[in-house]
Design goal:
By secondary structure, the protein is an alpha/beta fold. Helix content is about 30%, strand content about 25%. It has a single domain (about 5-250), classed as HUPs (Rossmann fold, 3-Layer(aba) Sandwich). The chain has helices spanning about 40-55, 70-80, 95, 100-115, 135-140, 195-200, 240-250, and strands spanning about 5-10, 10-15, 35, 55-65, 85-90, 120-125, 145-155, 160-165, 170-175, 180, 205-210. The chain is globular and about 65 Å long.
Length: about 250
Protein backbone atom coordinates (compact mmCIF):
# COMPACT_ATOMS: atom_id res chain seq x y z
CA UNK A 1 0.00 0.00 0.00
CA UNK A 2 1.58 3.28 -1.18
CA UNK A 3 0.59 6.09 1.14
CA UNK A 4 -0.30 9.67 0.35
CA UNK A 5 1.37 11.61 3.15
CA UNK A 6 0.49 15.12 4.33
CA UNK A 7 3.21 16.85 6.37
CA UNK A 8 2.74 20.06 8.36
CA UNK A 9 5.71 22.45 8.22
CA UNK A 10 5.51 25.59 10.37
CA UNK A 11 7.58 28.74 9.98
CA UNK A 12 8.95 29.74 13.39
CA UNK A 13 11.63 32.00 14.79
CA UNK A 14 14.92 30.14 14.41
CA UNK A 15 15.90 28.16 17.50
CA UNK A 16 19.24 29.98 17.76
CA UNK A 17 17.65 33.45 17.96
CA UNK A 18 17.27 35.15 21.36
CA UNK A 19 13.57 35.93 21.77
CA UNK A 20 12.66 39.53 22.65
CA UNK A 21 9.29 40.70 23.98
CA UNK A 22 7.67 43.56 22.08
CA UNK A 23 7.49 46.94 23.85
CA UNK A 24 3.67 46.69 23.98
CA UNK A 25 4.01 43.30 25.73
CA UNK A 26 1.46 41.73 23.38
CA UNK A 27 3.84 39.34 21.64
CA UNK A 28 7.46 38.82 20.63
CA UNK A 29 9.56 40.68 18.07
CA UNK A 30 9.37 38.94 14.67
CA UNK A 31 10.37 41.68 12.21
CA UNK A 32 13.95 41.40 11.00
CA UNK A 33 14.35 38.12 12.88
CA UNK A 34 15.61 34.92 11.25
CA UNK A 35 12.92 32.27 10.76
CA UNK A 36 13.21 28.61 9.80
CA UNK A 37 11.20 25.40 9.72
CA UNK A 38 10.10 24.13 13.12
CA UNK A 39 12.73 21.47 14.08
CA UNK A 40 10.10 18.85 14.97
CA UNK A 41 8.47 19.40 11.56
CA UNK A 42 11.84 18.81 9.88
CA UNK A 43 11.85 15.39 11.54
CA UNK A 44 8.30 14.70 10.34
CA UNK A 45 9.27 15.67 6.79
CA UNK A 46 12.37 13.48 6.91
CA UNK A 47 10.26 10.51 7.98
CA UNK A 48 7.82 11.09 5.11
CA UNK A 49 10.66 11.27 2.58
CA UNK A 50 12.15 8.05 3.95
CA UNK A 51 8.78 6.33 3.52
CA UNK A 52 8.79 7.41 -0.11
CA UNK A 53 12.35 6.19 -0.61
CA UNK A 54 11.24 2.80 0.73
CA UNK A 55 8.36 2.81 -1.83
CA UNK A 56 5.88 2.92 1.06
CA UNK A 57 4.62 6.40 0.12
CA UNK A 58 3.47 7.50 -3.31
CA UNK A 59 3.37 11.23 -2.66
CA UNK A 60 4.57 13.63 0.04
CA UNK A 61 2.73 16.95 0.33
CA UNK A 62 4.11 19.78 2.49
CA UNK A 63 1.54 22.09 4.09
CA UNK A 64 2.16 25.42 5.79
CA UNK A 65 -0.38 27.80 7.29
CA UNK A 66 0.68 31.41 7.64
CA UNK A 67 1.81 34.58 5.85
CA UNK A 68 3.41 34.80 2.42
CA UNK A 69 6.87 34.07 3.89
CA UNK A 70 5.65 30.55 4.77
CA UNK A 71 6.34 29.64 1.15
CA UNK A 72 10.06 29.75 2.02
CA UNK A 73 9.42 26.99 4.56
CA UNK A 74 7.54 24.96 1.97
CA UNK A 75 10.45 25.37 -0.48
CA UNK A 76 12.76 23.95 2.18
CA UNK A 77 10.44 20.94 2.52
CA UNK A 78 10.40 20.53 -1.28
CA UNK A 79 14.21 20.59 -1.31
CA UNK A 80 14.21 17.86 1.35
CA UNK A 81 12.13 15.65 -0.94
CA UNK A 82 8.45 16.64 -0.77
CA UNK A 83 6.66 16.37 -4.12
CA UNK A 84 4.50 19.49 -3.90
CA UNK A 85 3.31 22.08 -1.43
CA UNK A 86 0.12 23.69 -0.21
CA UNK A 87 0.19 27.17 1.30
CA UNK A 88 -2.89 28.20 3.25
CA UNK A 89 -2.29 31.91 3.49
CA UNK A 90 -3.16 33.77 6.69
CA UNK A 91 -1.80 37.33 6.24
CA UNK A 92 0.40 38.73 9.00
CA UNK A 93 -1.76 40.61 11.46
CA UNK A 94 -4.48 39.96 14.00
CA UNK A 95 -5.76 36.69 12.47
CA UNK A 96 -2.28 35.21 12.20
CA UNK A 97 -1.31 36.26 15.73
CA UNK A 98 -4.46 34.55 17.05
CA UNK A 99 -3.84 31.40 15.01
CA UNK A 100 -3.56 28.37 17.28
CA UNK A 101 -3.67 24.56 17.23
CA UNK A 102 -7.48 24.46 16.95
CA UNK A 103 -7.57 26.54 13.78
CA UNK A 104 -4.59 24.77 12.18
CA UNK A 105 -6.00 21.33 13.02
CA UNK A 106 -9.27 22.22 11.27
CA UNK A 107 -7.31 23.22 8.18
CA UNK A 108 -5.19 20.04 8.25
CA UNK A 109 -8.31 17.90 8.60
CA UNK A 110 -9.99 19.57 5.61
CA UNK A 111 -6.88 19.14 3.49
CA UNK A 112 -6.57 15.48 4.51
CA UNK A 113 -10.10 14.90 3.24
CA UNK A 114 -9.67 16.82 -0.03
CA UNK A 115 -6.24 15.28 -0.74
CA UNK A 116 -7.42 11.78 0.27
CA UNK A 117 -4.41 11.47 2.58
CA UNK A 118 -3.56 8.16 4.25
CA UNK A 119 -1.16 9.59 6.81
CA UNK A 120 -0.60 12.98 8.43
CA UNK A 121 2.85 13.56 9.90
CA UNK A 122 3.41 16.54 12.20
CA UNK A 123 6.04 17.64 14.67
CA UNK A 124 4.94 16.83 18.21
CA UNK A 125 5.03 20.57 19.00
CA UNK A 126 6.23 23.89 17.61
CA UNK A 127 9.08 25.63 19.42
CA UNK A 128 7.23 28.96 19.54
CA UNK A 129 4.00 28.04 21.37
CA UNK A 130 5.06 24.56 22.62
CA UNK A 131 1.38 23.56 22.62
CA UNK A 132 1.66 19.88 21.59
CA UNK A 133 -2.00 19.94 20.53
CA UNK A 134 -2.29 20.19 16.74
CA UNK A 135 -1.76 16.49 16.00
CA UNK A 136 -4.21 15.33 18.64
CA UNK A 137 -6.87 17.84 17.56
CA UNK A 138 -6.43 16.89 13.89
CA UNK A 139 -6.99 13.24 14.73
CA UNK A 140 -10.11 14.17 16.69
CA UNK A 141 -11.58 16.20 13.81
CA UNK A 142 -11.03 13.28 11.42
CA UNK A 143 -11.84 10.54 13.95
CA UNK A 144 -8.53 8.89 13.00
CA UNK A 145 -6.24 6.92 15.33
CA UNK A 146 -3.08 8.69 16.46
CA UNK A 147 0.46 7.93 17.51
CA UNK A 148 2.19 10.75 19.41
CA UNK A 149 5.80 11.43 20.44
CA UNK A 150 6.85 8.82 17.87
CA UNK A 151 10.44 7.59 18.13
CA UNK A 152 9.93 4.80 15.57
CA UNK A 153 7.35 4.23 12.81
CA UNK A 154 6.94 1.05 10.76
CA UNK A 155 4.35 0.37 8.06
CA UNK A 156 2.77 -3.08 8.04
CA UNK A 157 0.19 -3.40 5.25
CA UNK A 158 -2.72 -1.16 6.35
CA UNK A 159 -1.40 -0.54 9.86
CA UNK A 160 1.35 1.44 11.54
CA UNK A 161 3.48 0.17 14.40
CA UNK A 162 4.48 3.27 16.37
CA UNK A 163 6.83 3.42 19.33
CA UNK A 164 5.86 6.35 21.54
CA UNK A 165 8.24 7.90 24.03
CA UNK A 166 7.34 10.05 27.04
CA UNK A 167 9.08 8.97 30.21
CA UNK A 168 9.16 5.41 28.81
CA UNK A 169 8.51 3.42 25.64
CA UNK A 170 5.16 2.12 24.47
CA UNK A 171 4.62 0.38 21.13
CA UNK A 172 1.14 0.56 19.62
CA UNK A 173 -0.45 -0.67 16.40
CA UNK A 174 -2.90 1.67 14.68
CA UNK A 175 -4.90 1.34 11.49
CA UNK A 176 -4.56 3.72 8.55
CA UNK A 177 -5.50 6.46 7.89
CA UNK A 178 -3.82 7.94 10.95
CA UNK A 179 -2.05 10.94 12.47
CA UNK A 180 1.51 10.65 13.83
CA UNK A 181 3.53 13.31 15.65
CA UNK A 182 7.32 13.14 15.58
CA UNK A 183 9.67 13.14 18.56
CA UNK A 184 13.33 14.22 18.34
CA UNK A 185 14.46 10.58 18.51
CA UNK A 186 12.60 9.54 15.35
CA UNK A 187 15.40 10.45 12.93
CA UNK A 188 18.01 13.01 11.97
CA UNK A 189 16.80 15.30 9.15
CA UNK A 190 18.93 15.57 6.03
CA UNK A 191 20.42 18.78 4.70
CA UNK A 192 18.96 19.90 1.40
CA UNK A 193 21.59 19.62 -1.36
CA UNK A 194 22.12 22.39 -3.93
CA UNK A 195 20.70 20.30 -6.82
CA UNK A 196 17.57 19.55 -4.78
CA UNK A 197 17.23 23.22 -3.81
CA UNK A 198 17.28 24.09 -7.52
CA UNK A 199 14.74 21.36 -8.32
CA UNK A 200 12.49 22.63 -5.52
CA UNK A 201 12.08 25.95 -7.34
CA UNK A 202 10.20 24.14 -10.11
CA UNK A 203 7.87 22.17 -7.86
CA UNK A 204 4.32 23.39 -7.47
CA UNK A 205 2.91 25.22 -4.46
CA UNK A 206 -0.87 25.58 -4.44
CA UNK A 207 -2.15 28.72 -2.73
CA UNK A 208 -5.48 28.95 -0.94
CA UNK A 209 -7.15 30.55 2.06
CA UNK A 210 -9.01 29.22 5.08
CA UNK A 211 -12.20 30.54 3.47
CA UNK A 212 -11.54 28.37 0.40
CA UNK A 213 -11.54 25.37 2.75
CA UNK A 214 -14.62 26.70 4.57
CA UNK A 215 -12.71 26.81 7.86
CA UNK A 216 -13.52 29.41 10.50
CA UNK A 217 -10.23 30.63 11.99
CA UNK A 218 -11.80 32.92 14.59
CA UNK A 219 -10.20 32.47 18.01
CA UNK A 220 -11.83 32.71 21.44
CA UNK A 221 -8.47 33.20 23.13
CA UNK A 222 -7.16 36.64 24.03
CA UNK A 223 -3.56 37.50 24.86
CA UNK A 224 -3.47 39.69 27.96
CA UNK A 225 0.27 40.17 28.35
CA UNK A 226 3.57 38.62 27.30
CA UNK A 227 6.51 38.95 29.69
CA UNK A 228 10.08 37.75 29.94
CA UNK A 229 10.58 34.95 32.50
CA UNK A 230 11.80 36.23 35.89
CA UNK A 231 15.54 36.46 36.32
CA UNK A 232 16.82 33.53 38.32
CA UNK A 233 18.26 34.52 41.68
CA UNK A 234 21.89 33.70 42.39
CA UNK A 235 22.55 30.58 44.44
CA UNK A 236 24.50 30.29 47.70
CA UNK A 237 27.61 28.29 48.44
CA UNK A 238 27.82 26.21 51.62
CA UNK A 239 30.83 24.63 53.24
CA UNK A 240 29.28 21.39 54.48
CA UNK A 241 26.30 19.07 54.33
CA UNK A 242 25.30 20.21 57.82
CA UNK A 243 25.18 23.84 56.68
CA UNK A 244 23.17 22.83 53.60
CA UNK A 245 20.60 21.00 55.75
CA UNK A 246 20.40 24.01 58.04
CA UNK A 247 19.76 26.38 55.11
CA UNK A 248 17.06 24.06 53.74
CA UNK A 249 15.35 23.96 57.13
CA UNK A 250 15.47 27.75 57.43
CA UNK A 251 13.83 28.12 53.99
CA UNK A 252 11.12 25.61 54.86
CA UNK A 253 12.25 23.07 52.25
CA UNK A 254 12.77 20.40 54.92
Amino acid sequence: MALRVLVGVKRVIDYAVKIRVRPDKMGVVTEGVKHSMNPFDEIAMEEAVRLKEKKLASEVIAVSVGPQQSQETIRTALAMGADRGIHVEIPAGKDYEALGPLQVSKIMAKLAESEKADLILLGKQAIDGDYNQTGQMTAAHLDWPQGTFASEVNVEDKTLVVTEIDGGLETIKITLPAVVTADLRLNEPRYATLPNIMKAKKKKIAKMTAADLQVDIASNLETLKVEDPPVREAGQKVESVEELVGKLKESGCL
